[in-house]
Structure formats: structure tokens, C-alpha cells
Amino acid sequence: MMTLRSGPHEVDIEAPDLVTLRWRGVLGPNDLVRAFEQLREHCGSWPHLLVVNDISKLESIPPDTRRVVPEATGWMPMRGVVMFGGSFAVRTLAMLLLKVVNLLRGGENPSHFVTTEAEARAWIEQRRRQLEGGAR
What we know:
The protein is α/β, with parallel strands linked by helices and 136 residues long. It has four helices and six strands, in the order βββαβαβαβα. Strand 5 (78-84), helix 3 (88-105) and strand 6 (111-114) form a beta-alpha-beta unit. The chain has one domain (2-132): Transcription Regulator spoIIAA (2-Layer Sandwich), CATH 3.30.750.24. Helices cover 43% and strands 32% of the residues. The chain is globular.
């Protein structure tokens, strides 16, 4: 596993397909763009990404950050996103942003919310089995 940092946020990369984003405090646009640029550098050749978002310590996603999400994630071949933690407001914003990204790009990228990281990883394992079985 490799851990990268972008401001207070951490990005864990686990080949062959898993990325865990640990968002902390206020998620500013520069930190978000830098995190996804680092991901592209290390995972840009992967056929797909499964993403765990730890939003348990995320305080807010300001409007200027929300505006850059679709472009910053445009390269990502996401095939499953699971989130855990977070306040109701942060969970709602995160889900809305994911819906916008999915609408703009199309494709199969299911998303799910759970309570803990263990539940998130279990969901990722289930999603891997679906992908291996040909359900894309």
C-alpha cells in the first residue's frame, strides 16, 4: 500500500484496483485537484478503480470545490464507490456530487453508504466479485 497526502487529506492506493480517500476538515478545490492528479499519476493505467471515501472527519465541501469535481474525476474509470462516516449534510453533498459525476460520464458506477470502514471493504469485495463475474 502507498499513502499520499494532499493538505490534510490522505490517499491510500492498494493495487490492483482500490483507492481509499480520507478527507479531513474542509475540502478545498486545490487539495481535491492535487489528490486526483496524484491518483492519476499512480493509477491512471488501471482498467478500473474501486473507491472508498472516508468522510468521517470531513467538515464541508465548499461550492468552489463542488464545481471542480466533475472535471477532476473525468479520467477515473470508477466501477464502485462506497462512503462511510460523515454528517448528514456531508453525506448528502457527497452523494449528490457522485450522482452528477455519474450522469456526466455514464457507465456502471454503483455507490453505497455504510457505517464503518470494515463494512466499506466488505462492499468492495462484493463489488469485485460482480466485476469478475462480468457485471459491469
